[in-house]
Automatic annotation (TrEMBL):
Protein name: UDP-3-O-acylglucosamine N-acyltransferase
Source organism (scientific name): Croceitalea dokdonensis DOKDO 023
Similarity comment: family membership: Belongs to the transferase hexapeptide repeat family. LpxD subfamily.
Record-level Gene Ontology MF annotations: N-acyltransferase activity; UDP-3-O-[(3R)-3-hydroxyacyl]-glucosamine N-acyltransferase activity
HAMAP family per the UniProt record, alphabetical: LpxD
Gene that produces this protein: lpxD
Active site: H241 (proton acceptor)
Record's function text: Catalyzes the N-acylation of UDP-3-O-acylglucosamine using 3-hydroxyacyl-ACP as the acyl donor. Is involved in the biosynthesis of lipid A, a phosphorylated glycolipid that anchors the lipopolysaccharide to the outer membrane of the cell.
NCBIfam families: lipid_A_lpxD, PRK00892.1
Annotated catalysed reactions: a UDP-3-O-[(3R)-3-hydroxyacyl]-alpha-D-glucosamine + a (3R)-hydroxyacyl-[ACP] = a UDP-2-N,3-O-bis[(3R)-3-hydroxyacyl]-alpha-D-glucosamine + holo-[ACP] + H(+)
Quaternary assembly: Homotrimer.
């Protein structure tokens, strides 16, 4: 796909300075720009590169005034970073705007889908599946019986959505994600053997939820595992059965959340965090990477460590942690001196 400076300026409501017919077909960093590429300048640290970049078009802020000659065509906007992000969204919409049904595939005769539907090859749609408008199902996707998917949803290659799952509008499920697998429910008997507890619930993703590649979300034992509106999950996260995650909470990669834990709104959880089951985490909580959470957490707490401490207390304590060898040596010396004085 090629876009001219005039077309891009129209999308961004910007002003062209240079060749309005300059055309681009790819993106680049400003320091690595080459002919036919589009870049942007938002951070003043990179200003020097605008005089050497070979990018055909560069998005800049309206207040940018070149001090030397530039060969790249400029598009001036209110906020270069936001405008570039907007352009990326537009580019993705155009690039991913596939429609039609590829062969081979399996679709149950009871499955229903809306307008603007795309179904990639080797995908499977089970009984009574309901799919809204402008949904894109990429190749090798499995969608089980009685799944409901809203409007403007993308399910990327190789994702698996088990039966009874419900996905809202404007959601994204990336490759390899598994939604609705059984929760880890087993009960031991007197012989130490384990019997499976049937997992009869489902998974519900509300609107504007993003699920990263390789992330797994288990169905509930009873009821539902629920991700509320605007939740964002990174790659390779484990969400156990009956977990509930509040609106607009974001969680980084390799975090694991055990069963029946409730997490509030607008939380930020770093990578490799472990959270035990059956606890409640409040709203606006921040948890630093590699922390272990084993207790209820109040609103607005900031935590770090394993087991996690208040963030400020952790940093104060860490000063002493790293000095422990010196402290031990000092104590040993003091003990020797006391022994010598007493002998």
């Amino acid at each position: 796909m090629k876009f001219t400076a005039t077309q891009i300026a129209g999308i961004l409501e910007g002003q062209v300075e240079g060749n309005p017919e300059a055309a681009v077909h790819k993106l680049s960093k400003i320091e690595e720009g080459e002919a036919g590429s589009l870049t942007f300048l938002a951070n003043p640290k990179y200003t020097s590169f605008i005089y050497t970049t070979k990018a055909s078009i560069t998005i800049v802020n309206k207040d940018f005034v070149p001090e030397n000659a530039v060969s790249t065509t400029l598009i001036k906007v209110d906020d270069a970073y936001k405008s570039f992000s907007k352009l990326l969204e537009y580019y993705n919409e155009v690039k991913n705007n596939k429609v039609g049904i590829e062969q081979p595939h399996f679709m149950s005769s009871t499955a229903r889908y809306g307008e603007g539907f795309y179904l990639g090859a080797f995908s499977y749609l089970g009984e009574n599946v309901e799919i809204g408008d402008n949904v894109k199902i990429y190749p090798n996707v499995y969608i089980g019986d009685n799944v409901k998917i809203g409007n403007n949803v993308s399910v990327f290659a190789g994702a698996k959505i088990y039966s009874e799952s419900i996905i809202g509008n404007h959601c994204v499920v990336h490759s390899g994600a598994i939604i609705g697998a059984d929760g880890f429910g087993f009960t031991p008997n007197e012989k130490g053997e384990y019997s499976k507890v049937p997992q009869t619930g489902n998974v519900i993703l509300e609107d504007h939820v993003d699920i990263g590649a390789g992330t797994t979300i288990d169905r509930a034992t009873l009821g539902a595992t629920i991700l509320r509106k605007g939740v964002k999950l990174d790659n390779q996260i484990q969400i156990a059965h009956n977990v509930e995650i509040g609106e607009h909470t974001a969680i980084a990669a390799q975090t694991g959340i055990a069963g029946s834990t409730k997490i509030g709104k607008n939380c930020l959880i770093g990578g490799q965090v472990g959270i035990v089951g059956h606890i409640t985490i409040g709203d606006r909580v921040k948890i630093q990477a590699q922390s272990g959470i084993g207790r209820n957490v109040k609103d607005d707490e900031v935590l770090q460590g394993s087991p996690a401490l208040n963030y400020g207390d952790y940093n104060k304590s860490y000063v002493h942690f790293k000095n422990l060898p010196k402290i031990v040596n000092r104590i040993s010396e003091l003990e020797k001196n006391i022994d010598n004085e007493n002998s």
